[in-house]
Amino acid sequence: MRGDLVRKLAARCLTIGLAVLAFVVLALTGATGWGLALAVAALAATAAEQRVRPSADLVAETTLIAAAIVVGYARRLDDGLNLALVATGLVLLGLVLLVGPLRTAGSLEIRAANLPVRAWTPLIADQLGTALLGLLAALALAAALDLPAGGALAASLLVGAGAGAVALDLARRRFRPRAGGGPVAAALRRHQPEFLLYFSAPPGSEYQVTMWLPYLERIGRPFLVVLREPEFLAPVAAATDAPVVYCPTLGALDEALVPSLRAAFYVNHGAKNSHCVRFTQLSHVQLHHGDSDKAPSANPVSGIFDRIFVAGQAAIDRYARAGVQIPADKFVVVGRPQVESIEVRPEPARGLANPTVLYTPTWTGHHADADYCSLPVAEGLLHRLLERGATVILRAHPYTGQNPASARQLGRLTELLVADRAHTGRQHVVGAAARELSLTECVNASDALVSDVSGVISDFLYSGKPYAVTDMGGEGERFVERFPLAGSGYVLRRDMSNVDDVLTALLDTDPLAEARWATRRRYLGDFPAESYAEAFLAAARRELTLPEGRVSEGSAQLSPLA
């Protein structure tokens, strides 16, 4: 998004500018103190840029900074040709040239958590850039204190030796790989997982995995989580005791898919899913990470999976309505196990004097046809809710911050509710406090929902409580045709011209109370509340039954489709 690009451009300009300025001051003037201070500032800017742009090529800037520090060191010592300092410069040059390739090579190695194995080389390779910046900062300090150059050479050689050891080990792994894979593959074979959860998504999407982990654990069979992006390794590993493996390449994926596996589960339609679907010995099951009437919920890509677990008949109808033809035997109605802890209110609660309303605006989506976000018009809605004495739980979509305009709009709504809380004492829940609550906790704490088109409505539907849906496309009567779930809710027009009528129906009269129960069965299945999640668990266990002809335990490594 635009805000992210601005941050990256600012970081780039700051790093280059300070590096050049430090070199010019140290090489062409006698102001070594100022020059070394600028070099340290350039190092700080470089470290900041690495966080903003993790894959950035910073060789030129780092070379300039290293050269500036060596020149400044020589000027401070002022003792002619210093061989130790010359050697230090050569070691630094080698490190600057090696760090990038070693980090790249290390990033292509398989990594794991929650396994009794430690792959130290990739971790050290990933930190070499930070180590180099720390070394340069230490050399700048040594120059400022006029310390002997021998210490600088010793420190440089120490870091250089570490880089050399990493280079040798990475070369061995690349050119002389172990038969049957490395230590991660061996540990997975000992673990004997029967299924895997495969995940690839943009940053900030780990909730798609964590919502399913408790139910995968309740299947009662050993499993692993396979990730294709490194930033998910730590948060996902913290959410489960199951092995979590990051596979950066197809070769790493081949290594992780050990022979005991029988099924693979997916939670989205990520492009990299095809890398795993190619293993035809596995049963491939799409779970989705929510159930909604959004266009992506009827993605024709679903057809590549052997099974599509859906919450209710409405999901199957959604594909047909979108013209996506998928064989009926691929669909399995399993309910939405995540709603099992939602408290059900069987009787309508009419005439609520001081209601608690959950407002869940969605994000703008990747494409215009998936933009259902109501944040641009939400301020008037919140004012009306406050006038009715409502307490508001404002829980925005995790991707909201990807759009700077949405982030600003959310900020204004948060300020509005914080100001009202200070004035009236009503305990509105916003910001970090709202993010810390699970969706189930938000639903249980509320009397009604106002939402954009999203999977939140399906989950809220389980409670039996009333909800309103925003028509941000201005579709009028066609809105319910496109999004049938809105037919059992109260539709808010984009211009909010009917906001008072909708809030009266939502919080006072609730004429659609009976209709919601029929909709609930269509969208969430008709399963007993006391054993609601058992439908999913039974269906998942069936997928683990080894059909005749599939690769059995102890056989050769799983093989992808040629």
UniProtKB/TrEMBL annotation:
<keyword id="KW-0812">Transmembrane</keyword>
<feature type="transmembrane region" description="Helical">
    <location>
        <begin position="151"/>
        <end position="171"/>
    </location>
</feature>
<dbReference type="GO" id="GO:0016020">
    <property type="term" value="C:membrane"/>
</dbReference>
<dbReference type="GO" id="GO:0047355">
    <property type="term" value="F:CDP-glycerol glycerophosphotransferase activity"/>
</dbReference>
<feature type="transmembrane region" description="Helical">
    <location>
        <begin position="58"/>
        <end position="75"/>
    </location>
</feature>
<dbReference type="Pfam" id="PF04464">
    <property type="entry name" value="Glyphos_transf"/>
</dbReference>
<dbReference type="InterPro" id="IPR007554">
    <property type="entry name" value="Glycerophosphate_synth"/>
</dbReference>
<keyword id="KW-0472">Membrane</keyword>
<keyword id="KW-0808">Transferase</keyword>
<feature type="transmembrane region" description="Helical">
    <location>
        <begin position="123"/>
        <end position="145"/>
    </location>
</feature>
<feature type="transmembrane region" description="Helical">
    <location>
        <begin position="20"/>
        <end position="46"/>
    </location>
</feature>
<feature type="transmembrane region" description="Helical">
    <location>
        <begin position="81"/>
        <end position="102"/>
    </location>
</feature>
<dbReference type="InterPro" id="IPR043148">
    <property type="entry name" value="TagF_C"/>
</dbReference>
<keyword id="KW-1133">Transmembrane helix</keyword>
<protein>
    <submittedName>
        <fullName>CDP-glycerol glycerophosphotransferase</fullName>
    </submittedName>
</protein>
